[in-house]
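Re: Re: token formats

Sure, here are both.
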Amino acid sequence: MNNKTFLNAPELHIVIVAFSLHFVWELIQTPLYECFRDMHYYTVVLLIIRASLGDVLISLAAFWSASVAVRSRFWILDKGKKGLWVFLGMGMLITVVFEELATGPLNLWEYTNAMPILPILGTGLAPVAQWIILPLLQLWFVRRQLLGGSISGY
């Protein structure tokens, strides 16, 4: 794979944009999780980095699921919505299942009283909102990058 091919790979842009967006979101939502209350600043930053890398993996899994569904790694450039819905749906499914496991049987973290809980899912509103808002922003940025900074024609 040459440099130009590597730089045009949608996965590269997914990773960079996903990490950037999710890092900021994860940092902002720390008051909604009990585990961050009495932690040292550097420990919090390391956990935020780890969470953001997990978000990148979810983004890649959702991206590849959409790529398989539409049979193209460049579905972000298409006007069809199938890739978008698969991407959003897979990201949301992984997030809800992981949040349920993490706050339930795995006991990895718990929400503070400030976290609104969705009644049907039992999941916090922040992680669900994260996987509605950020993937849409992510796709917009990635599409723009793949088109060379232009968003005309869409």
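Second one below.
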Amino acid sequence: DFDAAGVRAAIKLSQGGQIIYPQFLEIVMRAGCTHYEVFITGKQVIYFGRKGEFHIEKFPTAK
């Protein structure tokens, strides 16, 4: 099953520099993510589960 909280946790770990990309992929796959799409101009990433579930993550804003 898709676990949006697990996907969000992986994103936070990655953004914080606590994990590298292969680890990120492993965590989001364990959270049920089958694929994701990056929309550069839309400034967001959509993570998808196998039953049509999804999580939208907006790009972080500059500080």
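Strands lie at 33-39, 44-49, 54-58. The mean pLDDT is 97.
- S.
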